[in-house]
């Protein structure tokens, strides 16, 4: 059974400290089970909560989530050694689970493993900040405000361009799906179903980038989706839904259908700056 003491050398959290790494969407029952570190779900509790990226991946995914949050929060700082045997003992998981988890974190740029040196935490400059998992983890860490600003800058750069390009491609299948998302958002707002609204809004923005017909931009659609979904990311149209916001979504769809590139770009820029929260994270257009 895991001890409650914290290892001074490793910096790994003891079981009672894992609640400092919450996940907003974790069900209440799961939260309670994690706090108790016992009962029929004790094996899951040993590695803490699961984020959206780790859901359904068992102990391996949960350990990735836990260690990732600890690294991003700064509790496991740069150049901190990560000893697999100690991690296995602390979280009561097998060496195979630890090894697979560290490989995932290495692929994300969070840790590095070298012969005769071992596995160590890498500095922020080496992290893959566009990885959806890291976007999610940063949403709960001390870099939350920096991420809001950075994601806002990124969206301001990507989405108006995507809207302009999409208007020139005439993808009727994607345009219909975009129109469907606007309809779902409007119906969801009318029903007070903000979860469905937020999902449709996220899908709308991802589809728009896909409709641009640029493979490099399309690769970024998952990043925009993550930015919209995680807590601490740029605001969505469903946080404070308004007729104006829904109308701008519809205007973008109309501009795509008519091939109005300038109109689609302008509507997207207006959408990004029109929301109170978005105004704080998306810079105003530069004067030329």
- Give the topology string: H per helix, E per strand: HHHEHHEEHHHHHHHHH
**What is the CA-atom radius of gyration, in angstroms?**
21 Å
Distance between the termini: 64 Å
Residue-averaged pLDDT: 77
According to CATH, what is the topology of the largest domain?
Four Helix Bundle (Hemerythrin (Met), subunit A)
Query: What's the number of helices?
Result: 14
The secondary-structure class comes to mainly alpha
CATH homologous superfamily descriptor of the largest domain: GntR ligand-binding domain-like
Query: Reading side by side through the largest sheet, how are the strands ordered?
Result: 1-3-2
What does this structure look like?
This protein has two domains: 15-126, Winged helix-like DNA-binding domain superfamily/Winged helix DNA-binding domain (Arc Repressor Mutant, subunit A, Orthogonal Bundle); 143-281, Up-down Bundle (Four Helix Bundle (Hemerythrin (Met), subunit A)). The chain is built from 14 helices and three strands. The chain has helices at residues 28-36, 42-45, 58-73, 84-91, 95-107, 132-138, 144-167, 172-191, 194-211, 215-218, 221-229, 243-258, 261-274, 276-281, and strands at 81-82, 111-114, 118-121. It has a three-stranded antiparallel beta sheet with strand order 1-3-2. A hairpin with a 3-residue loop joins strand 2 (111-114) and strand 3 (118-121). Helix 4 packs across helix 5. The longest helix is centred in the middle third of the chain and has 24 residues, at 144-167.
Labels describing this entry:
single chain, 288 residues, 3 strands, 3% strand, Four Helix Bundle (Hemerythrin (Met), subunit A), 2 domains, Arc Repressor Mutant, subunit A, mainly alpha, 3-stranded antiparallel beta sheet
């Amino acid at each position: 059974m895991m001890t409650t003491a914290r290892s001074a050398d490793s910096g790994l959290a003891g079981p009672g400290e894992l609640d400092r790494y919450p996940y907003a969407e974790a069900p209440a029952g799961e939260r309670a089970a994690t706090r108790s570190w016992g009962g029929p779900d004790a094996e899951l509790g040993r590695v803490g909560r699961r984020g959206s990226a780790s859901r359904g991946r068992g102990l391996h995914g949960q350990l990735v989530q836990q260690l990732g949050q600890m690294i991003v929060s700064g509790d496991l700082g740069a150049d901190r050694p990560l000893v697999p045997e100690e991690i296995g003992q602390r979280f009561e998981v097998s060496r195979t689970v630890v090894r697979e988890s560290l490989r995932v974190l290495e692929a994300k740029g969070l840790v590095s493993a070298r012969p005769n040196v071992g596995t160590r935490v890498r500095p922020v400059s080496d992290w893959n900040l566009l990885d959806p998992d890291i976007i999610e983890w940063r949403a709960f860490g001390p870099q939350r405000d920096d991420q809001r600003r950075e994601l806002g800058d990124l969206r301001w750069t990507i989405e108006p361009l995507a809207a302009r390009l999409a208007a020139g491609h005439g993808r009727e299948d994607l345009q219909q799906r975009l129109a469907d998302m606007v309809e779902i958002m409007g119906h969801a707002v009318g029903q007070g179903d903000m979860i469905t609204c937020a999902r449709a809004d996220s899908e709308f923005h991802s589809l728009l980038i896909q409709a641009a017909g640029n493979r490099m931009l399309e690769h970024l659609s998952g990043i925009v989706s993550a930015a919209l979904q995680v807590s601490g990311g740029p605001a969505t149209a469903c946080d404070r839904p308004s007729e104006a916001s829904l109308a701008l979504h519809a205007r973008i769809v109309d501009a795509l259908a008519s091939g109005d590139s300038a109109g689609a770009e302008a509507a997207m820029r207006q959408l990004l700056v029109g929301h109170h929260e978005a105004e704080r994270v998306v810079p105003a257009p530069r004067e030329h």
